[in-house]
Amino acid sequence: MTQVLVVIFLIFMTYMWSHYGVFRAVLHLVTTIVAGSLAIAFWEPLVFQFGFAMKPEYAWGIWLLGPFILYMVALRFLTDKFIRLDVDHTLLANAIGGGVCGLCSGILTAGLTVIGLGFLPLDFSFGQYKPLTISQAGHIEDHHRLWPPVDGMTAAFFTRLSGGGFYGGESLSQYMPELARQSWLFRIRADGGEMVTAVRDSIAFGRCLKHSMPLDATKFDQGVIDGLQKAM
Q1: Are 218 and 177 in contact (CB under 8 A)?
Q2: Helix orientation angle between 2-20 and 22-41, rounded to the nearest 10 degrees
Q3: What is the pTM assigned to this prediction?
């Protein structure tokens, strides 16, 4: 069902913005990028400040999707209010340019939605979308991907953006690596009633092992694992 809804949404966005024209489609794409960037930038602070104090099991999903929707509504209101003029283009330019920008906006919107839903305590195969599965040997394996893979494409886009034009001191690859995969893993639980989010002071540690490692998760290798095993 998720696959069908994503495809229908992308077709709708492409058609709608090809009708409205390339200028309005570009404005909407910029609005989507800014809204998504703000939602991700304030995501973790909002979760720790407000989310865990309310519904910790819903915190990561709600405080990503909620602000993203609010930012989108606010930015669309401002652009519609203050940018009322349009730019004349040929019918072909409006159709092609508007359609491409609408498709890109649709991918980012659908991708953030799928990622946000992945961080909610929903069923493992909610919407018949089960990107990972647990084998009989207990290993987590790839199972099914959306086409187009809007969640992976969106995570990769905002990760690259956070290390480039929207760099603010830390890249998304450092403090939230493999964002799409994290949302897939968040849904895996042995019991549907389990909560995979731990609130403050709910866990006590009896022993702590320390090992230096890079911030970039892509450099996490077998040597780090071997070092931790020796420390134990």
Answers
A1: yes
A2: 130
A3: 0.81
Residues 150 and 112 sit within 8 Å (Cβ to Cβ): no
Structure tokens at 25: 């489609």
Do the beta carbons of residue 12 and residue 130 sit within 8 Å? no
Using one digit for the tens of pLDDT, what is the confidence trace for 43-89?
Answer: 999 999 999 888 888 999 999 999 999 999 999 999 999 987 777 77
Closest CA to 116 of 66, 172, 52: 66
Please report where in the chains the tokens 């405080």 appear, as a residue. Answer: 63
Helix, strand or coil, per DSSP, at residue 132: strand
**Nearest-angstrom CA–CA distance, 145 and 55:** 29
- Give the phi and the psi of residue 140 in degrees, each rounded to 5: -90, 125
- The label of the residue with tokens 């639980």 reads 189
**108, burial (CB in 10 Å: exposed 0-12, middle 13-18, buried 19+):** buried
First to last CA, the chain: 46
